[in-house]
Amino acid sequence: MSHFFAYLSKMKFITRWSLMRNTWHENLQEHSLQVATIAHALAVVRNRFYNGQLNPERVALLALYHDAGEVIVGDLPTPIKYFNPTIRQAYGELEKDARQRLLGMLPEELRPDFASLFSPAEEDHQHAAVIAAADKICAYIKCLEERRAGNLEFSEAEKSIRAAIDAFDAPEVAYFVEHFIDSFSLTLDELN
User: Under a CB-based contact definition with an 8 Å cutoff, are residues 63 and 32 in contact?
Assistant: First the structure.
């Protein structure tokens, strides 16, 4: 019996932004889907407009699994994760071990088909950069949504995350911000 998919289903119980007051709680499962859809879009934009050679489907698939190890180690809040290099390195090792533990839950015959999702190959470094940008964009969207709901708890995070997004040297990120971000501040009626 394999516990792999049962463990992945626990992503819905991993709450993000745990140190901050939230008007609504975001879980890891919904976060992963949002990162996957935005990462896919970033890859498409890069390919379409900026001569990229990314595989958008590969990007989306890697993004779906990018935080899967957190079902074992949990979501460590950013201020703690990046408090110092020792903590960041130790947590990175924990995440790596958790991903390998998850992979080990699959039947041996299936492991080769999933292995690159948990330990991406060197050729995936450009895909990983797009996923990192999408992850940051999703954090920014969370801040926008919280502020729209009247929660000022996310104000400083919004500023620092926006600065990080603006610092990305990736035209697809600038394109996404220019064409899509403002919509996240609108109500449903305004979107219609």
Answer: yes
Distance CA 109, CA 142 (A): 39
Tell me which DSSP letter residue 127 carries: H
> Contact at 8 Å (CB) between 177 and 165?
yes
Sign of dihedral through CA atoms 136, 157, 24, 191?
negative
CATH number of the domain where residue 168 is located: 1.10.3210.10
Q: Digits of tens for pLDDT over the chain (192 positions)?
A: 999 999 999 999 999 998 889 999 999 999 999 999 999 999 999 999 999 999 999 999 999 999 999 998 877 677 667 678 888 888 788 888 999 999 999 999 999 999 999 877 777 889 999 999 999 999 999 999 999 999 999 999 999 999 999 999 999 999 999 999 999 988 889 988
How much of the chain is helix, strand and coil, in % rounded to 5? 70, 0, 25
Q: Which range marks the domain in which residue 103 is found?
A: 4-191
| Cα–Cα separations (whole angstroms), residue 3 to 72, 80, 101, 105, 132 | 12, 30, 11, 6, 28
Task: Say how many domains are in the chain.
Answer: 1
C-alpha span between 23 and 84 (Å, rounded): 30
